[in-house]
Design brief:
Number of strands: 14
Shape: globular
Mean pLDDT: 87
Radius of gyration: 16 Å
Number of helices: 0
Distance between the termini: 36 Å
Low-confidence stretches: none
Strand content: over 45%
Helix content: under 10%
Order of helices and strands: EEEEEEEEEEEEEE
Structural class: mainly beta
Length: 153
């Protein structure tokens, strides 16, 4: 079975701060996948990518691989806020954060679960309203007719 991602990445705003995180993800096993809470796991995020639209990179950072399998990266819990554009200790910048604009975005959080040694890839679409002045993040909706993700009016 091929999976593109394991859990939904979520975006929310706290004041003018944009946060990313995840709550649960699927772990393959046997004949089915089971949903596991990040709070019951040992998920560490080692890469973050934010795109506007399909291909416009707005921010991309990665933690170099840890050959000794230490707890490197960001330990993801349900309350973890990975803040957009914030410098993260140990992470290398692939694409510097750009100023946010209104519109449709996607976020990918690349990680692994140290309990199961399985990947934990979170992905989601979201929409931004009012960057810089009462920032709001909301979920995107899939437009069946257009066959693409869009911001709800």
């Amino acid at each position: 079975m091929s999976r593109r991602y394991d859990g939904d990445a979520i975006a929310w705003a706290v004041g003018d701060k944009l946060c990313f995180g995840g709550k649960s993800f699927s772990v393959p096993g046997g004949f089915s996948n089971k949903k596991v809470s990040v709070d019951a796991s040992d998920v560490f995020i080692h890469g973050i990518e934010v795109f506007k639209g399909e291909r416009d990179v707005f921010w991309s950072v990665f933690h170099p691989p840890d050959k000794e399998k230490k707890r490197s990266g960001i330990n993801l819990k349900s309350t973890t806020c990975i803040e957009y554009s914030k410098d993260i200790s140990g992470f290398s910048v692939k694409s510097s954060a750009r100023p946010l604009e209104e519109g449709l975005y996607s976020v990918s959080l690349y990680g692994n679960d140290r309990k199961t040694s399985k990947r934990a890839l979170f992905f989601g679409y979201f929409c931004l309203k009012n960057p810089g002045a009462g920032l709001r993040a909301q979920g995107a909706v899939f437009d069946e007719k257009a066959s693409r993700w869009v911001c709800a009016p």
